[in-house]
Amino acid sequence: MKKVLIAFGIILLSTTVAFAQSKVSGKVINKSRVDKSANVAIGEGSTANMGSIKLKNSQVSGKVINESRVDKSANVAIGKGATANMGSVTMKGSNVSGKVINESRVDKSANVAIGQGATANMGSVTMDNSKVSGKVINKSRVDKSANVAIGQGATANMGSVTMKNSQVSGKVINESRVDKSANVAIGKGSEANMGSVTME
Prior knowledge:
Elements: H1 2-14, E1 16-20, E2 23-25, E3 28-30, E4 33-35, E5 38-42, E6 47-50, E7 52-56, E8 59-61, E9 64-66, E10 69-71, E11 74-78, E12 83-86, E13 89-92, E14 95-96, E15 100-102, E16 105-107, E17 110-114, E18 119-122, E19 125-128, E20 131-132, E21 136-138, E22 141-143, E23 146-150, E24 155-158, E25 161-164, E26 167-168, E27 172-174, E28 177-179, E29 182-186, E30 191-194, E31 197-199
Parallel strand pairs: 1-7, 2-8, 3-9, 4-10, 5-11, 6-12, 7-13, 8-14, 9-15, 10-16, 11-17, 12-18, 13-19, 14-20, 15-21, 16-22, 17-23, 18-24, 19-25, 20-26, 21-27, 22-28, 23-29, 24-30, 25-31
């Protein structure tokens, strides 16, 4: 059992760049590669990140670039308010003085979030109460993969740019490519976005 826990710890640390209440003077770049792996978080409010960049209440003076690649892997978060991010850039309460670019590639993989208010992001850029002084560009590619969010108010984003209470001083460009894939949101008030730009 100890060996299993250590393996999961390595996956969580090596495939995602995460900042909380931090200041970065320079670029934030994630070029991780994940192959035939599983990343699982279970419990209320759990979060599973794979091949992603996550910013929370942080400031970055430079570009934020995600060039991760995920192949034949599974990323799962289970619990009320669970969030599963795969090949994505997620920002909450953060400021970036520069471009935000997501060029991740996801192939033959599954990203699943289960629980009330669950969110599953695959090959997407999501912003909540954040500000970007520059372009927001999503050029992710998703092939033969599944992105699933299950639960009341669940949200599933695939190859999308979603913004809520956020500001961008520049262009918002979505050039994502989704091929032979499924994006599913199940539950009352659920929402599924694929190859879209949504602003609220």
